[in-house]
Amino acid sequence: MHPLVRRLGVVLGVAGLAVPVGSAAAGTTDRGPVVPVIAWGSCGAEPALAKFQCASVEVPTDYDQPRGATTTIALTRLPASKPAERIGTLFTNPGGPGGAGLPFVQQFATTTYSADVRAKFDILGFDPRGVGKSDPVTCFPTAAEEAAAMTGLPQFPMTRDEIRQTNRINAKLGLGCLKTSPDRLKHFSTANVARDMDLLRQAVGDKKLTYIGYSYGTYLGATYAELFPHNIRALALDGTWTPSSYAGSSADSRPLGVRLGQAKAASEVFAQFKAECKQAGPSQCALAALGDPGTAAEQTLERLKTHPVDVTLPDGSKLTITYALTVGMIFSQLYSPAAWPNLALALTDLAVPRRTATKTLGKASATVFGWNQREEDYASLGTALQPCVEAQQTGRPFAYQAMADAADKKYPHFGRLRTWTGQACEFIPVRDTDAVRGPWTKLKADAPVLVIGTRHDPATPYAATRPYADLYPDAHLLTVNGWGHTTIGKSACADAAITRYLVTLDRPADGASCAQNRRPFDPPGR
After folding, report:
1. Does residue 94 have a cis peptide bond before it, meaning omega lies within 30 degrees of 0?
2. In this predicted model, which residue has the larger pLDDT, 315 or 375?
3. I want to staple 408 with a disulfide (CB 3.0 to 4.6 A). Which of 181, 301, 415, 524 is the partner?
């Protein structure tokens, strides 16, 4: 935003800009940040967005200088359908790091949240600072330049040439981020996102925060509880990140994906996939038609290490499917048990010996490799690099292959995949000094908290759920006995419990459990 426009906005109270201290709307002291005025308006002409409202506000770039430079935060909300029964605003975070809140609310709020929640809350999503439409961290001047720079970057490297290429590209990415977004990186921490959220809470007029966060959003929730323990009405936290594991320390500087336990969790859930496929049989799981699904899957993965498969996609384009690409695809598809039948079909297509030089994939198989997915506006890889400025790095960027080898011996396929996650951070020597670094032993939140964990979650291990809940003085744990990452769209029982908690603050008994609506390979409609 141009400084002159910002100054005029402060004087005139222009929509979305701060109102000066001393006015009734400001609600701040001379020492604190100015509470922005939110002027909700249209989200555009697209019919699907008609029921939503959008806005943008200015918040301090650096809360140590609350009246200094500002950062733009983009917002959207689904207004409460029964204003007379409205409790307040439900703040949401879909995960990440780098998850944009606007598309999450606009695409999923009407199906993710019950009619009762939608009646009594404005459901609000915001793109966290550095993400989406909120002054995103970018690492190259244009999307085209970034795409060109990232060309040839494997999902993870397997050969010496690929290792050198990965090191080179990640170093180039890090240098690009430092050159393009140094000011945004310096203030990119989750702590500043939490401070933004508390300012937004005041802006919508809520005395206390009602919040639901998923995956990384549980780390944001814990950070908010650490900074603003007395400003909480309700925290629903689904798919937990152990704060100490994410933050790391000098005593634990393993790669982030290893610290979070994702390699172990993904290996366990992949074993569940193979067992569920075997139980479902060939009528519901294509991979079972080849014999034992576990054997078929492992043989296919082993062959892909040395013999990648060239495929023709349904639109006629070509794709070389490597071992690394397939492992990455499996990891992402394990997030949703509804995707497991297509995952099984894709592995079956890759397992069947080729009669021609190029295989042709059907639409179901091609979809799991990212074909025909909705295109999005340019979002730099930089928006996912929040751990670079707040989490412990190894300090050994060129030792990743040795660390990956060790992890892969314990957790085949996924050890290597999750070790290499975040190597680019090793080349970004920027730290946000306002980040919360712990100790993550006890949080002081003085409100009842609901923590939800899925028994077989590939990205946020269930084993970390109880220790996470125990950080809070008064948290109840709800377990969903099923598969996938977070509970969204998977359990009517969990949805009802979350609704009851958000609306009334009544929680299930600590240690209660819910079933999922269906097993991964159940026939449609069951």
Report:
1. no
2. 315
3. 415
